[in-house]
Design a protein that fits this description.
450 residues, mainly alpha, 19 helices
């Protein structure tokens, strides 16, 4: 490994250690002390869709089933909750839970550590409940979310560095990680699926590049397993299977078509096997192996709101995350380097944009930024890396560093405004006022630190 690559990986590791330290000394302590309610609705980071995602894991471990009715009752109808949330029952008698099971599977190792910690603290006389709800469980899965996000960032750097310099790839990885909506889903909402989705898609793309190099049966199987995993985490990630399908049909003419098609078939079989737990849960819950849990009205096929999804002050992708403008500037340069891969990724990006724009709540409800584009961050990172590499080759690499630092600072201040309820979590916001308040927030932080 070249020195530049080693240095970049060291920087990413140091940043990860700093973020994990910040989480444990700030967010985790606020939760444990009962002072986090004004930031994240309750003194727990498991709520909203995050509660639905986590409910499967808790239910399997403590109840031995995937009927999450009691978990949802605990998280949504707790004493002092603002308004009751009815726990809807499906035709099979199971609680309606539209979220997929992938995050629960990924969190499992961390959940077991949290359970062991809770048992140890309880046996030592501490007032910690061994029930799947107490702080050791919550903090353990949150740390798991940080770990998966970091692994995704490492894979992202490796992917970008195949085409661009370590310098540009490092800055692109940092920008994607810290100047996007990801930090919100590491610190405020780590029980959501977005960091894991980013990781799973990064893993899939990295494995596809390996398959293109080696094409062995093992790598086709691993690629299929990764494809099933990313669909388990967020079902719409299944669209990324188009990338190897198009790449196989359109590339490597020196390899017989039959051999290429057999690889795609093997990938599909492995993806289906890994995805089968979700189909099993759907069958139990809805009576069908394939379904749209939210219902047919969830998608408005003929009424896309693409412009709003990109530019609205209501969680628009580019209005809330301006760093991603660099991605769209650089994607044409990546297309020149990798035409077939670039076109297939661009097609997936357009399909994801369309899909996110036809969802009934295209602004993605309550949250920070255009969170449903978590799976597109690896694609956009390639565009960011191309833009930074262009700057480097023209002797203005310093500008890339300034832009990275500036976008990270901007995003951090914006997230602080969001956490302190200076801006709405669900409605359109006054972008001009938010921009003015960035300076106010910066002075507030400096004053507190001083």
């Amino acid at each position: 490994m070249e020195t530049g690559h080693k240095g970049a990986l060291l920087v990413l590791t140091v940043v990860f250690a700093a973020m994990l330290t910040a989480f444990n000394f700030v967010t985790a302590r606020m939760i444990a002390s009962g002072k986090a309610g004004r930031l994240i609705h309750r003194d727990t980071i498991v709520h909203g869709d995050g509660a639905r995602l986590y409910a499967y894991l808790r239910s399997v471990w403590f109840d031995g089933d995937v009927n999450t009715a009691n978990e949802l009752e605990h998280y949504f109808n707790y004493p002092g909750s603002r308004e009751p949330v009815p726990i809807t029952t499906t035709s099979t008698g199971y609680a309606w839970n539209h979220t997929p099971v992938g995050c629960s599977l990924l969190w499992s190792p961390f959940f077991f550590l949290g359970h062991a910690t809770a048992v140890g603290m309880h046996d030592a006389g501490r007032t910690v409940a061994v029930d799947g709800y107490s702080h050791p469980y919550v903090i353990a899965i949150a740390i798991g979310t940080h770990v998966y996000c970091f692994l995704g960032v490492i894979l992202l750097f490796i992917i970008c560095s195949r085409y661009f310099s370590p310098f540009a790839s490092l800055l692109a990885a940092l920008t994607t990680w810290l100047a996007s909506f990801l930090p919100a889903y590491l610190f405020l909402y780590p029980s959501m699926s977005h960091a894991q989705s980013f990781f799973s898609v990064s893993l899939f793309i990295w494995l596809w590049l390996k398959v293109r190099e080696r094409g062995s049966i093992l790598y086709w199987c691993l690629l299929g397993a990764a494809g099933g995993l990313m669909a388990l985490v967020r079902t719409q990630n299944i669209i990324f299977l188009c990338v190897p399908i198009l790449g196989t049909l359109g590339g490597a003419p020196q390899i017989p078509l039959g051999r290429r098609l057999s690889g795609v078939l093997l990938m599909g079989v492995c993806a289906l096997i890994v995805f089968s737990p979700q189909m099993y849960v759907w069958k139990l819950t809805y009576g069908s192996f394939l379904t749209i849990p939210q219902g047919a009205g969830f998608l408005r096929w003929g009424r896309p709101a693409a412009w709003d999804v990109l530019f609205s002050s209501r969680h628009g992708l580019l209005s809330w995350t301006p760093a991603l403008i660099l991605a769209f500037m650089g994607l044409p340069a990546f297309l020149k380097k990798e035409r077939l891969l670039g076109l297939s990724l661009l097609m997936v990006l357009v399909l994801q944009l369309y899909l996110n724009s036809i969802v009934d709540d295209w602004w993605a409800g309550t949250g920070f930024g255009a969170r449903r584009f978590d799976n597109c961050l690896p694609i956009l990172a390639l565009g960011i890396a191309a833009t930074y590499d262009w700057m480097r080759t023209r002797g203005i690499g310093w500008l890339a560093v300034v832009l990275t630092a500036g976008f990270i600072a901007w995003n951090g201040l914006f997230l602080c405004q969001y956490a302190l309820n200076w801006v709405s979590h669900s409605d359109p916001i006054d972008m001009a006022k938010m921009a003015r308040d960035q300076l106010r927030m910066a002075f507030s932080i400096i004053k507190r630190l001083g």
